[in-house]
Amino acid sequence: MNEDQLSKLERLSNLLAQGAISQSEFDAQKYIILHSANQSQQPRPVKQNAPKSKMSGCLSFIAVFAAIGFLAIGLQSLFGTKTPDKPKDPKEARREHVESLFSAYDGSHPQLEKAVKSAMKNPDSYEHVETRFRDDGSTIYVITTFRGTNSFGGVVPQRADATISGDDGHIIEWQMLK
To answer: Rounded to whole angstroms, how far apart are CA atoms 28 and 21?
Structure first.
């Protein structure tokens, strides 16, 4: 131990005696001072290169081969020949548009679901069962079946129907069915 570490330990002891630091803080700082003393006095070992195994060479080859494969696939998709998109059939385009107005998760119409929940006594009890629709051109007729609690707490199936716009899907009119 050198004089610098001794003076640090003496100052640390004085701080402990004065109550400026706790015993645990003293012990932690003491360990740091003594540990730094041991590290500075010990020579550091020289790092030697370990002999490489055949397995590490094999793994390196596999990694390089995989990287080249991924690069080739990426270049092919970037510069490869691309077939031009065929123009969509108007009926197919309309079908895709109408289906986009409904939830991809459960097939419900989000605005109709919101309207039904706002009319229910217990909107938290809403459970979508099924939604069917008929495309009438400029409008779409929608029937939604759902479950919800009634005034007595029993879960009952119910239905709502709506006429929605065929363009943007907003509700034109709707009603609960009994």
So the answer is: 11
Residues 33 and 99 in one domain: no
Query: Does the residue 67 lie in any domain?
Result: no
| Residue with the two structure tokens 């029993």 | 154
168 vs 98: CA distance, rounded Å? 9
Residue 49 included in any domain: no
The answer to whether residue 172 sits within a structural domain is yes
CB 146 within 8 A of CB 158: yes
Neighbouring residues of 122: CB distance < 8 A, sequence distance ≥ 6: 148, 149
Query: Does residue 7 form part of some domain?
Result: yes
Comparing 178 with 92, the larger pLDDT belongs to 92
**Domain carrying residue 103:** 91-177
The CATH code of the domain that includes 95 is 3.10.450
Q: What is the distance of C-alpha 79 from the center of its chain?
A: 32
- For 3-55, the pLDDT digits (tens) are 888 888 888 888 888 888 888 888 888 888 887 755 555 555 555 555 555 55
Contacts of 13 (CB under 8 A, 6+ apart): 26
In angstroms, the CA 123 to CA 119 distance is 8
Number of domains in the chain: 2
Q: Which pTM value belongs to this model?
A: 0.51
Q: What is the mean pLDDT of the chain?
A: 82
